[in-house]
Amino acid sequence: VRLVESGGDLVQPGGSLTLSCAASGFTFSNYYMKWYRQAPGKERDLVAGISSIGGSTNYADSVKGRFTISRDNAKNTVTLRMNSLKPEDTAVYYCNAVRLRVTYWGQGTEVTVSS
């Protein structure tokens, strides 16, 4: 089982980034997918989630209207489009797959929002 995140970078406030997570080794389309983030010295927090067939999404209040989660079950990928980035969005972003009691995590990709 692998979840590999990519797309993290240094970006200026107000900028945009797209994070991707490539999944392998399990039946991706059966799993609810989430993005979490962990800022330095803080707990890991849920950012966004998307149902197995993509019909339902949810977002943390702090990112609503700025971030969009999507998935492509044919390509086994989940994407997080981040717009209007703020310094407080700086964190390591993790991809998470969950189904019943089974959960998988990626290694994370670092996003830094700074001028």
Task: Explain what you see.
With 115 residues, this protein is mainly β. Helices cover 0% and strands 54% of the residues. It has strands spanning 2-6, 10-11, 17-24, 32-38, 44-50, 57-59, 67-72, 77-82, 91-99, 102-105, 109-113. Strands 2, 4, 5, 6, 9, 10 and 11 form a seven-stranded mixed β-sheet that branches. It is globular. The termini are far apart.
Q: How would you state the average pLDDT, rounded?
A: 97
Largest sheet: 7 strands, mixed
Question: What Rg, in angstroms, do the CA atoms define?
Answer: 13 Å
How much helix, percentage-wise, in residues?
under 10%
- Taken from the alpha-carbon principal axes, the silhouette is globular
| Element pattern in H and E | EEEEEEEEEEE
- What is the strand tally? 11
Q: Flag low-confidence runs.
A: none
Structural class: mainly beta
Record the SSE blueprint.
Layout lengths: L1 E5 L3 E2 L5 E8 L7 E7 L5 E7 L6 E3 L7 E6 L4 E6 L8 E9 L2 E4 L3 E5 L2
Parallel strand pairs: 2-11
Antiparallel strand pairs: 1-3, 3-8, 4-5, 4-9, 5-6, 7-8, 9-10, 9-11
Write a brief structural summary.
It is built from no helices and eleven strands. Helix content is 0%, strand content 54%.
Descriptive keywords:
115 residues; mainly beta; 7-stranded mixed β-sheet; globular
